[in-house]
Structure formats: C-alpha cells, structure tokens
Design a protein that fits this description.
Elements: E1 17-23, H1 29-39, E2 47-54, E3 57-64, H2 67-70, H3 73-78, E4 83-89, E5 104-107, E6 111-120, H4 123-132, H5 142-151, H6 158-165, E7 171-178, E8 183-187, E9 196-200, E10 203-207, H7 210-215, E11 219-223, E12 228-233, E13 236-241, E14 250-251, H8 252-258, E15 264-265, E16 268-269, H9 270-284, E17 291-294, H10 300-310, E18 318-320, H11 332-337, E19 344-346, H12 348-351, E20 355-360, H13 367-378, E21 383-388, H14 416-423, E22 427-430, H15 433-440, E23 447-448, H16 450-453, H17 469-472
Parallel strand pairs: 14-23, 17-20, 20-21, 21-22
Antiparallel strand pairs: 1-4, 1-10, 2-3, 2-4, 5-6, 6-7, 7-8, 8-12, 9-10, 9-11, 12-13, 15-16, 18-19
Helix pairs in contact: 4-5, 5-6, 9-10, 9-15
The protein binds iron/sulfur cluster.
Iron/sulfur cluster binds next to helix 8 and helix 16.
Length: 478
C-alpha cells in the first residue's frame, strides 16, 4: 500500500451501478424508488438520483453521496408523479463528478430520463458520431450517449427509437428509461448485468436485483430477458425481443461478489451459492487448521461453507467497522505507520496460537489482504491459510466493473505460489472456475468469466475505452 492509497477501500473489485423503475399512478413512486435504491446501495455509493414525471414535465433530483444523504423528506415530497426511475452509481465510464450522476435527463425531440448499469464498448465511436451531427453533451458518461440516441431519434415513440438504437449499442447495458407516461426497461443481448421484473399490486417495476423488489413488497416475476425491451405503463406490460445475440454471457462475478446475498440470480439465492463455493473450496483445497474466519462481510458465506464442509469451527477473528464510508478523511502517513485499524481489527482471543483459515471472496490488488495477513500475524496467529472463493483475477473488465488495470492486479503474471509470497501467508488457494460453475449450477457457455480467463464473450471488447475515454475526447464544456 502506498501512502496515498485510500485505506478504507476494500480490496475487491469496485461495484458498478443499480437501477430501478416503476409505473404506479396511485402510489408515492418517489418513495418507492428511494427504498429500492436503499436496497441497491451496495451497487454504487458515489451518487444517487431519482426522476419522476408529473404531467408533461420530468423532474430529477440527484447528487453525490449515499441515498440517505442525497434525499430528505422535503425532497421526496417534491418528486410527485406516476412514473419514477432511480439510480445509484459507482463510476465505470466518466469520472465521479456531479454531472455524471444519473438519472440523465434530455429533452431533444423526446423528453426522457435514463438510468444505466453497464458499459458501452463502442462509446467513443457513438459519441463522435453524435457530435458530428451537432448533438451536445453535458456529461462524460457513456449513459448519456444512449439517452442522446433515444432523445434525438426521429421515431414517433421512444419504444420505436429504442428498437432502432438497441442493435447499435455494443457492450453491457441493463437500462431503464422513463417518459412522462411509461418506464421502458431493456437489457443487452448477452444479458451481462442483471435486471429483474416485479409486480407490486396491479402495477409493475424493474430493479437491478430482487432485494430491491423485496424491500417495497413487490413480487419477483422473472428476469428481463437478454435483448428484450419491456414497456411498463397504463396498459400493463408490453414486451418486444429486439436483439437476438449469438450467446448469453451473464457476469459470473455477480454470483461471487456483486449481488446482495439475499438477491436471486438466475434462480439461485446468492447466499446459498456462496456457501456452496465455500464447501467446494474445502473439497479442492483442504488444510489442517483450528479455526475458519471470514474477511467480513464479503467472505462470510464462503467461510460458513468451508467450515461446514471441513468441520473446522468458524469464529469471528476480524471485527469490521461498518461505518467507514468511501469518503472518509484519510489518516495520513503517521497513523498509517502505526497500523491504523480503521476498517478491520483482529481478535487475539480467536486467532492467537491458532492455525487459521481466512476466507474471502476475491483478491484484486492484494493490498488489503496483505495488511490483514500482517495484522493477524501480529495478533499471534500461528499459521495463516488464505482460501479465496473466486479464481485469480488477471484481466480487466470491459462490461461495467471498475477493476484495476491488469498491471495492478496481484495475480497478473504471477503463479499462485508467487501471490502467496506477496501476501505473506502460509498457504493460498483459489476455487477453480469449474467449482464456481458447479456452485451456481450453470456453465461457461452462458456466462462471462473474462476477468479470470481473458476470454471476452463479446466481439470488439478490446476496443472499449477506459473509464475516462469520453473525457479524453476533451469536447465536454466544463
Ligand atoms: S469480466 Fe468479470 S466482472 Fe466483468 S462481466 Fe465478465 S465476469 Fe463480470
């Protein structure tokens, strides 16, 4: 860890975004969107926003910060309407500046608001094409490109515009768009990111994860299908299959890490899949030890599975401060040197003199893991055996997850033994990719696992620009 690394960031991949949309004229749609976003907070903590429509006008409230920081009672009451969409954001294209918050509002030919989870591979090409047509942008996110393509489109309806635009979008997009009378949800042909359809009373809603349906009392109906557009309005649901992609490629990392444990992904309760991964990890990498501990909270489920399968008792060897936010004041060099335990503190009574198995769900850069190993040694652990319920991450994600560049990944260009040496533990083992698929009862042919294998499921993935690709065009007035 360098002195400038934020000490509070966890070592896993950064979350992405969460979206929600609802049509319910008789309900307080802004409040429903607020609670849904609250449930999706784990998918993005940089900014939050809600758009509603009252009559012909679309109103948007958004700001940097957590959902509960961005909205208050008065703000929610001001968001009247029959339709709402919402968004929580972790930036994957575009910086985290205010302008890049969502929902994005445009009123070129069609007035609409849009919230997007994913990443467009052809963002730079589409952005260039639109600018050449005289379209201007207020943000540097790839999401505004989709909004601009729809808002400027000559078709009579946004649905017809989308039918024309969707085949031109390359990459990952689970997206909700609202007009003043409907919500339109659509998902890329490979179905990279999740999007679920729910029913609340007689009305319908969509959300990135089913945990957001649960919180507002909505019943989960089904996933929005890859390549499908669903329009939700006064006539109920209307659906059209717009894109038929050659293959599906749902992100396998959603099962391992991103989704909340209580969400359903492809028919699997995520918590159950992660426990199963822990059991398989024991089968694949057993070790003689006295106690299993999780890196909380990310490793909890897999640690429970490892403990159950091995018979080695699980205990709380690391205590986590749950109130450390990403925006926390950085501690400075002096406190770092003293080994500031801002986020995790080891329990000497659990680990001293013991051979411990430490379970986590993934390692990206390795800094936090190295720190934790060192803390546990200082707390007296006799042996430290790391067990990871994801395969080694060696390649970047082009589909909406902000991972470090390959060079920053501890597994890049290293064998497992070399990684173990870097981390300073006594042994290190990762679950195999086959083990992950066994746990989720699915196969590689319908999933993306490119960050583990380097095999990208979409053509032209290498053309994806970096996080700041639109900023680099240097055409946005600041
Ligand atoms: S590269 Fe990894 S994180 Fe990105 S979509 Fe594929 S499996 Fe998910």
């Amino acid at each position: 860890m360098t002195p400038n690394d934020p000490i509070v960031d966890r070592d896993g991949p950064r979350d992405e975004c969460g979206v929600f949309g609802i049509y319910a004229p008789e309900s307080d749609v802004a409040r429903l969107a607020y609670f849904a976003l609250y449930a999706l907070q784990h998918r993005g903590q940089e900014s939050a926003g809600i758009a509603t429509s009252e009559g012909p006008r679309i109103m948007v409230q958004r700001d940097v910060g957590l959902v509960q920081q961005v909205f208050d009672e008065a703000g929610l009451q001001a968001l009247a309407g029959e339709v709402a969409i919402g968004h929580v954001r972790y930036s994957t294209t575009g910086s985290s500046a205010w302008e890049n918050g969502q929902p994005i509002h445009r009123a070129d030919r069609h007035e609409l608001a849009l919230a997007h989870n994913g990443n467009l591979i052809n963002a730079v090409a589409l952005h260039t094409e639109l600018r050449e047509q005289g379209v201007t942008f207020r943000s540097t996110s790839d999401s505004e490109i989709i909004a601009a393509l729809l808002s400027t489109h000559p078709a009579d309806t946004v649905e017809d515009a989308l039918a024309d635009v969707m085949p031109r979008l390359e990459g990952a997009f689970s997206t909700v768009v609202m007009t003043n009378e409907s919500v339109i949800a659509f998902r890329d042909g490979a179905g990279l990111r999740p999007l679920s359809l729910g029913q609340v009373g007689e009305r319908y809603c969509v959300a990135s994860e089913t945990c957001a349906l649960d919180i507002i009392g909505a019943k989960f109906l089904r996933d929005v299908q890859p390549g499908e557009m669903i329009s939700i309005g006064a006539r109920g649901i209307e659906t059209r299959q717009i894109v038929n992609a050659p293959r599906r490629a749902f992100c396998v990392f959603e099962h391992i890490y991103f989704a909340r444990p209580d969400s359903l992904l492809e028919g699997n309760r995520t918590q159950v899949s992660r426990r199963k991964m822990g059991e398989i990890l024991w089968r694949q990498a057993p070790v003689d030890a006295d106690v299993v501990i999780a890196i909380p909270d990310s490793g909890n489920a897999a640690a429970a599975g490892y403990s159950k399968a091995s018979g080695i008792p699980k205990d709380d060897g690391l205590i986590k401060n749950r109130y450390v936010a990403r925006t926390f004041i950085q501690p400075g060099q002096e406190l770092r040197k003293q080994g500031l335990r801002l986020k995790f503190n080891p329990m000497p009574e659990v680990v001293a003199g013991k051979r411990i198995v430490v379970v986590d769900d993934s390692i990206v850069r390795g800094n936090t893991t190295r720190q934790i190993v060192s803390m546990l040694r200082h707390a007296g652990a006799a042996e430290i055996h790391m067990r990871i319920s994801a395969p080694p991450i060696r390649y970047p994600c082009h589909y909406g997850i902000d991972m470090s560049t390959s060079e920053e990944m501890v597994a890049h260009g290293r064998t497992v033994e070399e990684i173990r040496d870097e981390l300073g533990c006594d042994s290190l083992a990762y679950i195999s990719l086959e083990g992950v698929y066994e746990a989720i009862r699915a196969g590689r042919d319908t999933h993306c696992d490119a960050c583990f294998t380097g095999e990208y499921p979409l053509e032209h993935s290498d053309r994806a620009g970096g996080k700041f690709s639109i900023e680099e065009l240097a055409v946005i007035p600041t």
